């Protein structure tokens, strides 16, 4: 999703771009306003990667009849749905009850592993991550795809959030 609203990989999604994208969720402006306030608690006027993911989780919660609040972030809900017939990039995943986000308890574990690999300036190189990935015993072509999908900004390094993915 973030590639659609941040195609130049600035790491920030402005209020107008985010509003246009989030409106495709079909939720009311009142609900979307609550989501924005929770995703941008400091009132910066833009969403960073973490804020954008919070917004997506809250959209999914609202679409599934849950309250829009921070405690809803821990609920298991299907991915959010966005309606945009003009964009070939947007593929609505099948609505299965899959857990598509990193759970809080998993994130804490992954953050610990990330820190144990001694990141430099908050980033890990492929050389440092490779042994961890190899421990999964997955085929190399699959691990390569995992890396490509996880290195969201395509800088050849993983930050803490990319590592958790």
From TrEMBL:
The keyword Calcium applies. SUPFAM superfamilies: EF-hand. It holds the Pfam family EH. InterPro entries: EF-hand-dom_pair, EF_Hand_1_Ca_BS, EF_hand_dom, EH_dom. Residues 138-165 form the EF-hand domain. One of its GO terms (molecular function) is cadherin binding. One of its GO terms (cellular component) is clathrin coat of coated pit. Residues 1-83, 106-165 form the EH domain. GO terms for biological process: endocytosis; endosomal transport. Keywords: Calcium, Metal-binding. This is EP15R factor.
């Amino acid at each position: 999703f973030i590639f659609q609203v941040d195609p130049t990989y600035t790491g920030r999604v402005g209020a107008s771009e985010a509003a246009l994208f989030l409106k495709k969720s079909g939720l009311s402006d009142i609900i979307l306003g609550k989501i924005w306030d929770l995703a941008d608690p400091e009132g910066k006027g833009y969403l960073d990667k973490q804020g954008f993911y919070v917004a997506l989780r809250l959209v999914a919660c609202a679409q599934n009849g849950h309250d829009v609040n921070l405690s809803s972030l821990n609920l298991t809900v299907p991915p959010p749905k966005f309606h945009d017939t003009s964009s070939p990039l947007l593929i609505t995943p099948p609505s299965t009850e899959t857990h598509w986000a990193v759970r809080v308890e998993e994130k804490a574990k992954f953050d610990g592993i990330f820190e144990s690999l001694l990141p430099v300036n908050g980033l890990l190189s492929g050389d440092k991550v490779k042994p961890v990935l190899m421990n999964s015993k997955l085929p190399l072509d699959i691990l390569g795809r995992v890396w490509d999908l996880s290195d969201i900004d395509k800088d050849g390094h993983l930050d803490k959030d990319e590592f958790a993915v």
